[in-house]
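User: Hi! I'm working on a homework problem where we have to compare a predicted structure to a textbook description. Could you give me the structure for the chain below?
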Amino acid sequence: MATRMAKRAAENCARFSGSRSLGHRLKRLGSRSFCSADGGSAGSIPLTQPLPGVPLPVYAALSNHSHDTHVTTLDNGLRVASMNKYGQFSTVGVLLDSGSRYEANYTKGISHFLEKLAFGSTELYSNRDHILQELEKYGGICDCQSSRDTMIYGISANTDGLSEVTKLLSQVVFQPKMTPGEFDDARVAIQFELEDVAFRPDAEPVLIEMIHQAAFTDNTLGLPKLCPVENISRINYKMLQKYLHNYHTPKRVVLAGVGMEHQQLVDYAHEHFVGVTPSWESSELSGKDSSVDRSTAQYIGGLQREVRDMSNIAPGTPIPELAHVVIGLESCGHRDPDFIAFAVLNMLMGGGGSFSAGGPGKGMYTRLYLNVLNRFHWMYSATAMHHSYDDSGIFCIHASANPSMVKEMVEVIVREFFNMAGRIEEVELSRAKKQLQSMLMMNLEARPVVFEDIGRQVLATNERKEPQEFCQMIEKITAEDIQRAATRMLRTKPSVAALGDLSRLPEYHAIQEALVSKDGRFPRKFVSLFRR
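Assistant: Happy to help. Predicted structure tokens:
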């Protein structure tokens, strides 16, 4: 048998070598015969060496552009931060230290209104269409987003239009007209958004609002991000004037950009942002010093519940009737030494979109999948969330199930919180750290994400840490760091947000006592309340 196989291999090799056309082509490519004299394999050249006769590859030359982040402070206090990056397009925008957390002394909903009024008429641009037509010349798009602690105006456009884009941003931020017609349009947009949030099958936006209100009742981070319905008709331009005078000042502004030379952006900032008189500076406000709320977030903890009929929230879809519960504990701000430990804990539990992008099975080894979703078939979802700000934060678990299983669902969540301070396997810790590092690096491949990262860091700390530094900090996290952070968190009062049919929701005191118990279980005196 072996002799016949060797003979057949030799015949095939001879037939292959005798084909003049194919052999000639292989010779021209600098190839070699793949058959030895005895018909065996003759791959004598290792893969680490180039093939003889084949031209060496030509690689793209590295750009001389520096990819460091540069920060410059102008005479009026405005900071300019940028990083160069390959490509014909750039992202540039303005970030302000402004948001709903500063509205304690104002009509709630101002930041939401400012978001909807953005990119409207200004001193140089007659209306929103005029702005969009100017951006269209450079293939540009624009957007504005408000959060609890930051207001962001961003534009992505061809780098050739950087001067025009910078001028446009200056107009939009400091010289908007905010006409009565634009206020009417903003009211309609806000009303529509609130109705959409209320009837959306995904209850997360409502629950995020509720959990912040439960954690920071009526102070700073607990103030509503979305405009309350009763304030939609009340807010007008006169109400905005004082707020804009106090919070939209150059010293609270960062002009951030990605995809341009730093000095070029600094020059345009000097031209368009220095010496600009804001359109809201009336005779009453002119010359007056700004009055800024410097209150520190006070974590309180408590319960926010809303009974709502969710039985017909998504007709024609496979989404069943669900009751939603979010339980949160105070974590830390992003300047705290335990911030990275909480970020790793979030990935370990099953947060950060671990069940979405990144390939099949990306979140299948997190604790909330292995210990919760994989064991309790009646649990519809379970996700960890970490909201971190300058001076405080909340670590939450959001879960949903049929209303008849709310008590059991809460017990499962409480037990997972309790177990965070227990033993942590090396393999799950290593997996969580690698997942967090990869998510960080992959997100920063997108230019708008880099822009926001630069702007937010410079706005908070006047500098930007490079992603490699964060990766090193993540790698140094140990199981002891996670346990310390979790133990610290468990000492705080719980915050609870619940939405839907809540007839089986345990009392707040039962949840609080279970979190401080020795095994994370509800006391007997509370368990008896839920028996049917």
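For your comparison, note the following. The chain has a mean pLDDT of 87. The domain at 71-273 is CATH 3.30.830.10 (Cytochrome Bc1 Complex; Chain A, domain 1). Good luck with the assignment!
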